[in-house]
Design brief:
Blueprint: H1 2-13, H2 16-27, H3 33-40, H4 44-54, E1 71-76, H5 82-91, E2 95-100, H6 111-124
Parallel strand pairs: 1-2
Helix pairs in contact: 1-4
Length: about 130
C-alpha cells in the first residue's frame, strides 16, 4: 500500500489538473464535466495529508467479521486494489463482491456497468 500512496503523492505534486489528465489518459476516458469540477475543487495539500495519515492508521481487518451491515464492493480486476477489496469483502459476513474483468480503477466511471449491480443490491435491501 505504501507504493500506492507514494504514487498518489507524486501525481498530486503536479496539481489536480495534471492528475486528472493523467488519469483520463491512462483510463482512456474523458470525465464528465461535473466530475471534473468536483475533483478540481479538492485541496491537493489536504489530500496529500490524508494519504500520509492513512499510511499509519491501524488495520480494521480484525473488526470486519463483526460488521454485519450489508455492503456491496465492486472493483476492476486490473485495479491495484483488487486483492485488498476482494479480501475485505470476504471478511464481512453480509458483503457482496462484483468484479469487472479488464478494467482498473476507471470502473468508477463506467456507470452503465456498475449501476445494474447497485440497483440489484438496493432492491434486495428493499430500497428502490
Amino acid at each position: 500500500m505504501r507504493a500506492r500512496i507514494r504514487w498518489w503523492l507524486q501525481r498530486l505534486k503536479k496539481g489536480m489538473v495534471a492528475h486528472i489528465e493523467m488519469f483520463e489518459k491512462e483510463a482512456g476516458i474523458k470525465m464528465m464535466p461535473q466530475t471534473r469540477a468536483r475533483l478540481l475543487a479538492n485541496d491537493t495539500e489536504a489530500l496529500a495529508a490524508f494519504l500520509l495519515a492513512s499510511e499509519w492508521r491501524a488495520s480494521l481487518e480484525d473488526a470486519l467479521p463483526n460488521m454485519t451491515m450489508p455492503c456491496l464492493f465492486y472493483v476492476g480486476e486490473a485495479d491495484e486494489c483488487y486483492a485488498s477489496v476482494r479480501k475485505c469483502a470476504s471478511l464481512l459476513p453480509n458483503a457482496e463482491f462484483v468484479s469487472f474483468p479488464g478494467l482498473g480503477h476507471e470502473v468508477d466511471f463506467q456507470s452503465h456497468l456498475v449501476l445494474p449491480h447497485i440497483k440489484k443490491f438496493l432492491e434486495k435491501l428493499g430500497h428502490t
